[in-house]
Specification:
rod-shaped; mainly alpha; 107 residues; single chain
Amino acid sequence: MAANAPDRGAVLDDIRVLTAAPRPLLAQVERTLADGYACALQIEAESRRLRQRLEERAASLTESPGSEHVVEVAGLAKGIARTDGELAELRTALLELRETARRLRAA
């Protein structure tokens, strides 16, 4: 992730605190939503890079099928699975926080 990107774990912690609070401040909720969306964009970008690299390496396996290339392809696939899981968890939490923001704006 980029050096200035919000930390996913910290964003998830903030989301949990805000969604559990009886009446969080709307400004905090909105800031955390923005951080969460920025984090999601970073994860999506990482996933795209991994997928592109996986496609490149998989296409070259026939030319150089050595075990180091197979290990690299497997590692890329695991990275994609990891980013998919991280993104799904973050999106679920962001939906909950977005509902909290909607509720606060309506009050």
